[in-house]
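User: Quick one: structure for sequence A, then sequence B.

Assistant: Sequence A:
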Amino acid sequence: MHTIEVDFDVFKALTLRRPNEHVTENDVLRELLDLPARLAIKEVNGNEPERNKGAWITKGVTFPERTEFRAHYKGRTYLARVIDGALVINNESFDSPSAAAMKITGNHVNGWNFWEYRLPNQGSWQSIKGLRRA
């Protein structure tokens, strides 16, 4: 995930173009740049957009259905996947990266530091650490 710096006026303009909290600044920029949306959005009740039901949304970050997660802990590699709006490990669903990490370690763990992700049909793994909104 790359980071760009913008001044306050640019940030304010991006924020004002967000019709609701489910639309991110990145979504606004994609629209302004005529890029395709990252996730399918459908209209619900006339004008309220709703994310793809299979996507997992946590702390303002959306992971599409089938996004893979991995973590290395005590010499083992653990794998998880986004299925039906949750992070799933061995058929057990979790609503946060930290809850999933705690299941593996048995200790309180910051899941945002613990996991890496790979989007569907992508080759490279990336840390989820930098994705979370403040």
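Sequence B:
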Amino acid sequence: MKLKGLRVLDLSLFLPGPHLTMMMADHGAEVIKLEPPGGEPVREVGLKQNQTSVWFRNTHRGKQSICINLKEQAGRDALLKLAATCDVVVEAFRPGVAGRLGMDYPAVSAVNPGIVYCSISAFGQNGPLRDRPAHDLAVEALSGLVACNIDGHGKPVNPHVPAADMAASLMAFSGILMALLRRHETGKGDFIDVAMLDSLMAWTPNVTGPVFAEHRAPHPPEERSFGGNAFYRVYRTADDRYLALGGSEQKFVVNLLTALGREDLSSLHAQGPGPHQQPLVDYLDATFATKTLAEWETFLADIDVCWAPVLDLKQAFDQPQVQHRNMRWQDADGNDHIGVPIQFANEPACPDPVLPSIGQHNRQVLLACGLDSATIDELEKTGVLLSS
């Protein structure tokens, strides 16, 4: 596997850091997860399948678990000794916390100059919002994207995908791999500062036109991606199901409207998004409401147009395309897993479904980084090393 031989120390919690280190584990890296006393919080968040949180299973499979009391100097010393043997450290504390624990980049790089050290936070390690706490929704709100996600009354609504978390996860993953590639050339590690806000705002080039070109905020009902384009909208069908038109190229517009006998309306679309498309929107609203979703599936099957039924999340994970690409799979115990989206022809991922108990690998990991059994015994006796 592509990342075999890499050792990763994961100090992060919740979603962005654990997700990216799970991806590294799926592709062969040895990932050592530091859990706080009581364990990773998502062990107990959300619904469980076979006594294990679905969230935890899909962010922590294949990892080793250590649990060290970092309030004790002996615990901090042991963790730094471990970091000296690693290739990558990922942390997602609030800025400054890693330094107070003696585990920031200067401390780790002093004992391990080749370390690739990635800090993930809401707003980054500098700037006026540096110390402000935030989870995904608050970051999405500050990114301007919640204001683009409005209901029929113009009210902003909660996004239902943790886009800021996942954007940061993927940006951090990319940055770590780039730093490792450069280290191969120079022998030097690097510090990577990933902000959730930066990561999410980097995902906006397709919707930033009004801001940069016209110095105004987007007006979602009239913008191409938010409802101002008749062929980039969701429509209700006769059986109260929904379908989405998801391609605004003019050829698709002409293809569908010709099949419906209203090619004349295509000229409205050709003028670009905006309120002038309302007659086309009204026509499609009324037309799609005349047949069931199944009837539209039959009608649209042979027409070259971008469209899809709106599926709920269960239907999405049950659909043949997802099953075919192993994006939902079951382990030998019948537990469901979200699959691996990066599919190599050579050396494909081999996700390990085994989940660690809290502190299960304390002794194994610390012996491997050079601590002797007597020292580990003492750390266990004094409550520096913890386990479930």
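The longest strand covers residues 30-35. The longest helix spans residues 163-186.

User: Thanks, that's what I needed.
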